[in-house]
Structure formats: C-alpha cells, structure tokens
Design a protein that fits this description.
single chain, 428 residues, Growth Hormone, Chain: A
Length: 428
C-alpha cells in the first residue's frame, strides 16, 4: 500500500476541520449577533437550522457529481464556495441576510463528506477503511473543539464580524495545498504500478452504473437503516454544533474565556474517540470477526454511550456536566468512523460510493434542521431551559443504536439490479 494514502486522508481531515470551524463560527458568535441585531431565540433557531436545508438537499447531487467528475476538482470548488459564504457573513444586517448566507453555505459544505468517502474508497482497503474514516471524520470533532477557543479569541480581538472573515480565509489556503498535492491513485506520480494494482484489488468493483442507480439502492432495507441511524447520530452531534455554546453561556454562566477553554473539552475528547472507533472495527475484522459484527458492535456501542447527554440536564455541577457531555460526544465520534466506512463497504461498485455517502448524509442532516429549530422553540417556550432538548437528544441516540442493530442487515456489497424486492425482505 502506498504511504501517500495517509497524506491524502490528512488533507481530508484538514478540510473537514475547516468545514466545521466555518459552520460553527455562527454558533459561537450567536449570543453576540443576537444581542446586536435583536434576534429572538426562536428566530435564531430557524437561522441556525437554515444551513441544514440546503446541506441535506445537496448531499445526493454532490455525491453524484463527485462520482461523475472526480474528487480533486469538485472538492476544491466546494471549499471555495463555502469559504466565500463564511467571509460574507461579516456584512449581514439582519435575520434575512444571515439566513440567506446560511442557505448558501450549506450548498458548498455539502461537498465535503461525499468527497472524503470517495478518497477513502480510492486509497484504502476495507481492513483500513474504518481508521481512514475515523481520521477524516475526527475533523468534525477537531473543528468543533478548535472553533471554540479560536473563534472566541477572534471575537474578543476583532469582533464577531471580522471573525467570519478570518475563518473564511482558512479554506482558501487549504484549496491551494489540495490542488498542489492531491491526485487519484491512478494519476499520482508517487504511486508505483504494484501499489496501484494492490489498491485496485481492494476497492469495490469498477463498473458503470445504470441511470438512476440511486433509486435502486433505496429498495434495500440496509440503506434505509443507514439513513435513520445516521439521522439519530446527527441529532446528538448537531446539538453540539448549534446550541452547545449558548447552552453553556445560558445555563452554566460561561464567559467568553470559559467558552474558549472549558467548552473545548468535549470536542478534544471526541478526536481520539473517532480514531479509536475506526481502528476498533478494523481490528475486530482483522482478528476474525465478520465485517457485519465488527462494524455493528462499534456503531451500536457508540450510540448507546452518546445517550448520556440526557443526564447532563439533571446535574448542576459544571465539571460533571462537561464530563457527561464529553462521554456523549466521544460516543458520537466513535460511531461516526464506522458510519462513514459503510458506503464503501456496501456500495455495489466504485461508481456509487460517493453517491451512497451523499444519500445517507442527506437524510442525516435533516436532523440539523430539527434539532436547531426544536431547541430554539423549546428554549423560548420554557424561558431558557434546555431540559427538554437534552432529554430528546439522548432518546435519539438510543433509537439510532436500535436502527443499526435491527434494520441494517449484513455489511456486504448490495446487489444492483431491478429485482431487489426480495433482498428488502431478507434484510440486505
């Protein structure tokens, strides 16, 4: 296997980190933006959730674009798009302009995970794909952790408007590095013929998919189970990505300094958890477990652990609350590495890996719409209480575990033909 594969997945990790810094900037700046622009919590919830409308809608189209035109150019375009949208948030004057830019941001950021999945499929065999997914998916946790001190510092130093300009500039730097270093294995001058042959043997079969192949995938129960399970996982995760800073400020009285120092602990805990989640399922598979048992054990275990977020609603000590939130966030990260291994594990062929990744991510990110708006409405109706949102979030963690356990079938390439109704009944 070429050593270059680790560089390629680190580039994906960096892009995902920037992706989450950019989308989290508004969550950290939200208390200050709301005060200056006089935005009600319910309206703020709609604004925070607006990003997910376009982000979820564009997952499948972006996955198809990545499979059709290649990951190198499409990833670069996606990062340029979302970076410009982030920087332009500095000039907003009210809720409507903020919402418009959040919708535009979602279009660009939708290209990240389908691209990451494609890179992992091209450069890694299935015995290492869990770790590869854990590395790029840990960028989400790194972005969530780094964004708190980074954006808090930028706001304190430059104000919230220029903070958006600074974070938006990160993606432009990444794009230059990406175009200089990334090529697919079959076009990379650093990959030998023997290494390329080894990689090709470890990938899903290369064949052309029929038009509308994504519709055929929806005939499989496993695909629906993946979408529901990921929806539940994201319901937990997106509490951290949207309302977590406001929760710490409102309920636990965090200052901007506290937010930057203590508030980053759950995100930091989640980074090694993501790597551990991917490594664990790969190791179990290498030691004789079936791929189904290895992936499902980690998927279910991580989601069950994530449900402890509900307990944080019943504690008053800040240290205990942070400990519970760290366990929960770590559980989501542990699960996420395995979620992003699944598209390459079950794709009928290499031409559908990014498409399948986009499908599950599209369904999953509807959770962002729901959790952002639901939390804002509940906080507004209960005069600042996060009790109901936290309990509901924990319940979705358990529901996700049940989905992967009972709805998702065997982790193996799905048949792709027009006679798949029988496989739906048999649990493929």
């Amino acid at each position: 296997m070429p050593r270059l594969r680790w560089l390629m997945i680190i580039l994906c990790f960096a892009a995902t980190t920037i992706n989450y810094i950019d989308r989290a900037t508004i969550a950290i700046a939200a208390p200050f933006m709301a005060k200056e622009l006089n935005i009600d919590p319910a309206i703020l919830g709609i604004i925070l959730g607006g990003f997910f409308w376009t982000y979820a809608f564009m997952q499948l189209p972006f996955g198809m674009i990545v499979d059709r035109f290649g990951v190198r150019s499409t990833y670069a375009v996606a990062v340029i798009w979302w970076s410009v949208c982030t920087a332009l948030t500095s000039v907003v004057r009210g809720p409507l302009s903020i919402l418009g830019l959040r919708l535009a941001l979602g279009i660009g950021e939708a290209g990240s995970y389908p691209s990451n999945t494609k890179v992992a499929s091209l450069w890694f065999p299935k015995t290492e794909r869990g770790l590869a997914a854990g590395i790029f998916d840990s960028g989400a946790r790194a972005g969530a952790a780094v964004s708190l001190p980074l954006v808090a510092l930028l706001i304190a130093w430059l104000g919230w408007r220029l903070a958006f300009v600074a974070t938006g500039g990160l993606g432009l730097i990444w794009m230059i590095v990406w175009l200089a270093l990334y090529h697919d294995p079959d076009r990379h001058p650093g990959v030998s013929a023997d290494e390329l042959e080894t990689l090709r043997a470890a990938q899903p079969p290369a064949m052309k998919s029929p038009p509308g192949a994504w519709r055929l995938l929806l005939r499989h129960r496993t695909v629906w189970g993946m979408m529901l399970g990921f929806f539940c996982s994201n319901f937990v995760f997106y509490f951290y990505a949207t309302w977590f800073p406001s929760y710490l400020v409102t309920t636990h009285g965090f200052s901007l300094k506290d937010l930057g120092l203590i508030g980053m602990i759950p995100g930091l805990a989640a980074i090694p958890a993501a790597w551990l989640g991917g490594w664990s399922s790969d190791a179990l598979h290498r030691h004789g477990w079936s791929l189904t048992a290895a992936r499902k054990t980690c998927l279910v275990g991580g989601l069950v652990l994530s449900s402890v977020i509900a307990l944080s609603a019943f504690v008053t000590q800040t240290w205990l609350c942070i400990a519970l939130l760290s366990l929960s966030f770590g559980g989501i990260a542990f699960t996420g590495a395995n979620i992003w291994s699944l598209p390459a594990d079950i794709a009928p062929n290499a031409d559908l890996v990014a498409t399948l990744g986009g499908m599950q991510n599209s369904a999953a990110n509807i959770a962002g719409i729901v959790i952002a708006s639901f939390t804002g409405l509940m906080v507004s109706l209960t005069h600042g209480s996060f009790m109901i949102p936290l309990c509901a979030t924990g319940a979705f963690g358990l529901l996700g575990a049940l989905s992967y356990l009972f709805i998702v079938g065997s982790i193996a390439p799905l048949p792709l033909d027009t006679n798949t109704r029988q496989t739906t009944l048999t649990g493929s």
